[in-house]
Design a protein that fits this description.
By secondary structure, the chain is α/β, with parallel strands linked by helices. It is about 40% helix and about 15% strand. Strand 8, helix 4 and strand 9 form a beta-alpha-beta unit.
Length: about 325
């Protein structure tokens, strides 16, 4: 029997999620996010099963991930386990038809997007629905998308409404003008950058949950600044970012703590963060994340990062 991870309620809902979620985007991607074909289906299913067996019972997907492939592979796994034992999240606003990807945040578009996701995920319902990457469609989301999702929530079809984005400015507007339960923010609150802290603080005040994704800034904070193939936001690493990460890594090394461990733990210290969402491609990556959460980090390490100007002094740190 797996040891389940501690859980927290999503905002003001009754839905509970564990502190680590499986971000399924890499299941539709090539190995190491490189070029070529996606990872083999068997590898994807083994990673999902290993996570489940080791207490990770929160799976986040989206139609955009591999043009439906990540959802389909997640669905092949979900059909083998009791549905009530997991929390499933996906995203709306995107329709996939073969190789065609079309964004549509209209009411009908939302319903069509959800219908496609349910088929690929092989489930009757999902727990959390996020609006997907609506960077340039905030008005339509507030006026049309959100009301459609609110109806689904009122009917009990879904349990929580969120928005998944790689920025925090538009979600800030959503939080101020609509009754969102949660937000998935990728890459904007990490050991490398804490620019979203004010937004996270607001969400904490309003009782809105945050799922911190992209916590390694697309691998840079997991592999290290000088590792082969490391990227920053899925692009080559700028020289100034390399310098900053080297400095963070050096301080971590002074205390015998890996960069990966510090990067894994920091986001969870913010009280608004319910869970980190980590993209896994293999069982070993799942175990490395779980191991990182078990390691003790001296308070002096965080103090050194503050003193060096490498960490926002107002950012909560692990106790």
């Amino acid at each position: 029997m797996a040891t389940l991870l501690p859980t927290q309620a999503v905002g003001r809902t009754t839905l509970q999620v564990p502190r680590v979620g499986f971000g399924t985007s890499p299941l539709g991607m090539p190995p190491g996010w490189g070029d070529g074909e996606p990872i083999a289906e068997n590898q994807a299913l083994l990673a999902l099963q290993y996570a489940f067996d080791n207490g990770i019972r929160f799976f986040d997907s989206a139609p955009m991930y591999g043009k439906g492939l990540a959802e389909a592979r997640t669905g092949a796994f979900l059909r083998q386990i009791p549905r009530e034992q997991v929390v499933v999240a996906t995203k709306v606003g995107v329709e996939i038809s073969g190789e065609t990807v079309q964004r549509d945040y209209s009411r009908d578009g939302v319903l069509r997007s959800l219908e496609g996701s349910l088929k690929r995920l092989q489930v009757d319902a999902v727990d959390i629905l996020h609006v997907d990457d609506a960077d340039n469609d905030a008005d339509q989301v507030l006026n049309e998308t959100f009301p459609a999702l609110a109806e689904l929530r009122a009917q009990g079809v879904i349990k929580a409404i969120g928005a998944g984005m790689n920025q925090w400015q538009v979600p800030m507007r959503f939080a101020q003008h609509a009754d969102f339960d949660c937000f998935l923010i990728a890459g904007r609150y990490t050991l490398l950058e804490q620019g979203a802290r004010a937004f996270f603080d607001l969400c904490h005040q309003k009782g809105i949950a945050i799922f911190a994704a992209g916590i390694y800034n697309s691998g840079l904070l997991a592999k290290g600044a000088t590792s082969t193939g490391a990227t920053y936001n899925y692009k080559p690493v700028p020289p100034e970012i390399v310098t900053r990460v080297k400095a963070i890594e050096a301080i971590c090394g002074e205390f015998g703590v890996s960069l990966h461990t510090a990067a894994t733990q920091l986001p969870l210290a913010h009280p608004a963060v319910n869970a980190i969402l980590v993209g896994f491609q293999a069982a070993g990556e799942v175990q490395a994340c779980l191991d990182a959460l078990q390691q003790s980090i001296p308070a002096a390490l965080w103090n050194r990062l503050h003193e060096a100007g490498l960490l926002d002094v107002a950012a909560p740190v692990p106790s």
